[in-house]
Prior knowledge:
The complex is a heterodimer. By secondary structure, chain A is mostly helical. Chain A contains eleven helices and no strands. Chain B contains 14 helices and no strands. Chain A binds chain B through residues 101, 104-105, 107-113, 116-118, 120-123, 199, 203, 206-207, 210-213, 222-223, 226, 229-230, 232, 235, 245, 248-249, 252-253, 256-257, and chain B through 72, 75-77, 79-80, 83-84, 87-88, 90-92, 197-198, 200-206, 209-210, 213, 283-284, 286-288, 290-291, 294-295, 305-306, 309-310, 312, 317, 320-321, 324-325, 328-329.
Amino acid sequence: MKKLLTAVFLLLLVLVAVFTLSWSRWSYAAQDREAILAPTTAVHPAGTDELGRDRLVRTAAALLIGLTGATLAAAISIVVAAGVGLLAGFSPRWIAAALMFFSDGFLSLPWLFFLMMVRSLLPLTASPLMTAVTTFVVLAFLGWPAFARAIYRGALGMRGSEWMIQGRASGLTTWQLMRLHVVPQLRSLIWPQFLICVPAFIMAEANLGALGLGVGEPIPSWGAMLMELDNTALLVSSHWVYLPIALLVVVLMILESFASEVKVYA
Amino acid sequence: MNSSLPTFSMRRTWLDLSELQRSERQMEGGGRLRGFISIPISLGLLFRLREPPFTGRAMMRLLITMAARTMRALLLMLFAAVGTILLVRFAPGFFSDAREMDARYAQVAQAEMQMESARQQRVSVTAAKALEGWLHGDLGTSRQYQTPVVDLLTARIPVSALLLGKGIVCGWLLAICAALPISGLRGKNILWGAPFTVLLAIPVAAMATACIVSDAGGPVLVLSLLIAAREFKFLQSLLESAWRSPHLLLGRAQGMRARALLTLHILPNLAPQLCALATLSLVTALGALIPVEVVFTVPGVGELAWSAVMNRDLPVLATISLLMACAVGLAGWIAPRPAMLEVA
C-alpha cells in the first residue's frame, strides 16, 4: 500500500511538472528582463531568478531532467554491474578476482571525490546539452562497482546450487542457464539495486552541480538551482528560492522510501 | 550433514548463556567496574581471540590473511594512483602552458618548453616520474600555487583530520544517543527516525549552505548530521535485533539491568559490526569533506582537492587521490570481514 502511495505521489509530481512546462508561456531559458528577482505574480507564480527566468518552470524542468537523467544513468549502471557481476560469477576464479579487483579500484576512492575528479577532467566548456549528457554518463559509468559486487555475490551463490548442476547435467550451456534461470532469479536483487541507484545519482548530480561541475547553464538542474541559495540578497527577497531544495528533498524521500519498500518485499 | 547446522546455533546459545552467567557472577560480586573494563577487552572478540583456544596454526593463517589483505590494499592504492595519473594525462588542456603565450620568452626557451612538453606526453614517462617521486618522498610542485605539494598538504592535513575526527565522533554520539532508546521501544515508531530520513535526503552542499544562511552551526555540525543520518538506521536495526536475542530476553526476565546487558552483552557482541560501520563512516566523511570545506571555505584537503580539480593541478590531484586511497584502504584493512572472523 505504501509502495503504491509513493509511486502515485511521484507520478503526480511528474505530471504536475509536465503540465507546468506545457502550460507556462515561459521556457526554462527565457528571460523576462522586466521582472528580474520578481516576487510572486500572476505571470510568475514562484517568482524569477536573478536573470529573470521563471522559477516554477525551471524547477519543473530540473525535476524532469534530474529524474530522467538519473533513471537512465541508473539503468546503464545496473546493466554494466549485472554484466560484470555475472561474468565474474560464472568465469574462472582468476578472471573473477581480476574483475573484482578492478571494481574495488573504483571503490578505493570516495564516491564524490572520484566523480568530481573524473567530471572535471572531461571538457568543461562544452554545450549545455553536452555537459548534461556528460554528467549523467559519468554517473552511469562510475556507479556500477558496488552493485557489481552485490550481483557477483548473488551469482556466486547460484553457481553451486543444485538446480544449476541439474541444468548443466541436462545439457544447457552457461549462456542458456544465465538467460533462462540466473537473470530471472537475480531480478529480485537487481531491481532494488536500481531503485537505490536513482536517488543516489540525483543526490550526486546535485552535489556536483553545487560545486560547479554539473549540468551547464541555462539547462536547469538541481545542482545549479542549489547554487541560488548562496545569494543572500535573493534569499531575503523571496521565500520561493527554497522551492527547488524543498522539492528535491521530497523527491529523494519518495524515491528512498519506494526503494526501501521494494527491498522489504524483495 | 543436516545435524551440523543446528550445532552452530546451539553452540552460540550456549556461549551466550555462559557469558550471561559469568556476567551475573560479576555483578553479584560487585564487579561493576570489571564489567565496564571488560568492554575494551571484549573488543578482542572482534577476532574471537578468546574462543576457541588460539593455536599456532590459526595464528599463522591469520598472519597470512593479514599479509594478503595488506598486499591487496597496497595494490589498490597503486591502482588508484596510476588511474589518476592516466586520467589527468588524457584530460583536455593538460599540456597547455601559459608561458608559451608570453612574448617575453625567447624562441629558444619556447622550443625548450615544447620539447619538455613532448617528453611528458609519453604516459610511461609521466607515471614513472610521479611514482619515482613518491617513493623518494617528493610529491612534486603544485602547478597552480608553484609550491611543493608537501608544504600544501602539511598545512592542510591537520585541519581536515580534526574536522573529520570531530564530525565522525559527534555523528556517532548523535546516532547512538538516538538509536539506543528507540531500539528499546516495543512498537515500531517511524516518527522517531523521521529526522534522520529527512537528513538523508538533503545533499551535503545544500545542508552546508543552509547552515551558513541560517548562521547556525559549522562544518562539524554538517558532517555530524550526515554521519548520524547514515549510521542511525544500521545502528537501530543492529540494536533492535540484539535486544530481541533469546539470551538477552532471559537476562531481562531474570531482572538484569539494561545498563549491564548493554555493557556486558550487546556492545561486546556488536563490536565487529560497529567497527565495520565506523570504517564506512570514514569513507562517507571523506566524500563529504569536499563540499563541506568548499562551502565553508575551510583551508583543508577537501578544499585543496576542489581547487586542484578546477585547475587540473596534476601533482596535487594525484597526491590527494593517493591519500584518499590510503585512507579508504586502511579503513578496509581494519574493518573485520566474515572470512577474517572464520580464520581467527
